[in-house]
Amino acid sequence: VKLGLSIQWALLAGLITSCLGLVLWRSSRKIFFDKICIAQNDPKLQVEGVVNVGATVKSSKSMLVCWDPTYLSRLWCVLEVAAFLKTHENAAELIIRPTSWGPLAIVLFSTFWAWSGVSQWTASLVLGYVDMEQVGPITVALIYAAVNAVNHMLFMPWIAHFWRSHLRDLEQACTQLSDFRFDRDVSCYCCAIGHVNPVTGKAMICDHATIRECLHIWFGSTAEFEQVIRDRVAPTFKRSFRKHPLPYKWILGATVPTLWISMCNAMQAAHDGSEFLAM
């Protein structure tokens, strides 16, 4: 059974709608995003914003960490995590989301669209040369299975490559959190340039020393802060992602193309009065 023109338009509409939903959908939750909410061009307002980060963190219900392998090496990121842990007893409110989730979800979404489209087109092309009344439903099912098997071999290595990369990132995150050391892992811009302003040539106050003092005030010592990271944050992260490396809702959204193709098949079968065979 070849795809009718209406089904082709339905597939195109589904592709456009799902792509727009993926790109344009946004959460209604209010967030404080330091890079946007803190003035970047006015030094005075910028200082005031940085000074009040602690108050903002304290007033927040949760903290979303967009984690990548460099996150725990950035001094101000560590400060924000420390401030949140100091003001919130429940470490589960510190939500860690690897940045690899985004590319992985897009790859899955795009691949499933390509996979479903190619499978549907190939099966329709092959079945166009087959007398459906003579071969019977079992032969048709075998044709669909053969087409899907070929497409599995074409598309699965691509998905597996990104999935393995994502799992390596998660494993690296677990290792970093379980073995976090402030003095060893954290660096800052002022230390990298030798505490000399490259524009004015004047000496700069070391952010590392300032934040170390904050950690001493909040936790008693940097060692105590490190212990909090290892004892409260690392276990929460491991429990969340070793069981579900990618959230179910994300996987469901990425596999929408398969559902859409099946719906198109069902509608065409109902219209033609033929048996429905989902891809």
Task: Based on the model shown, name its key terms.
279 residues, elongated, mainly alpha, 69% helix, membrane, two-stranded parallel ribbon, transmembrane helix, transmembrane
Account of the 3D structure:
The protein is mainly α and 279 residues long. 69% of the residues lie in helices and 4% in strands. β1, α5 and β2 (94-98) form a beta-alpha-beta unit. α1 (5-24) packs antiparallel against α13, α5 (75-87) runs parallel beside α10 (207-219) and α6 (101-127) packs parallel to α12. Keywords: Membrane, Transmembrane, Transmembrane helix. The chain crosses the membrane at residues 6-25, 94-115, 135-160.
Chain-wise SSE layout:
Layout: H1 5-24, H2 34-37, H3 43-51, H4 53-59, E1 63-67, H5 75-87, E2 94-98, H6 101-127, H7 132-178, H8 182-185, H9 189-192, H10 207-219, H11 222-241, H12 248-254, H13 256-272
Parallel strand pairs: 1-2
Helix pairs in contact: 1-13, 4-5, 5-10, 6-7, 6-12, 6-13, 7-11
Largest sheet: 2 strands, parallel
Distance between the termini: 13 Å
What would you call the shape? elongated
What are the low-pLDDT stretches, counting only 5+ consecutive residues below 50? none
Query: Helical content, roughly?
Result: 55-70%
SSE ordering: HHHHEHEHHHHHHHH
Q: Indicate the mean pLDDT.
A: 75
Strand order in the largest sheet? 1-2
Counting H and I runs of at least 4 residues, what is the number of helices? 13
Number of strands: 2
Give the oligomer, counting copies of the same chain as homo and different chains as hetero. single chain
- Radius of gyration over C-alpha positions, nearest whole angstrom: 26 Å
The fraction of residues assigned to DSSP E strands is under 5%
- Based on helices, strands and strand pairing, what is the structural class? mainly alpha
Keywords: Membrane, Transmembrane, Transmembrane helix
Transmembrane segments: 6-25, 94-115, 135-160
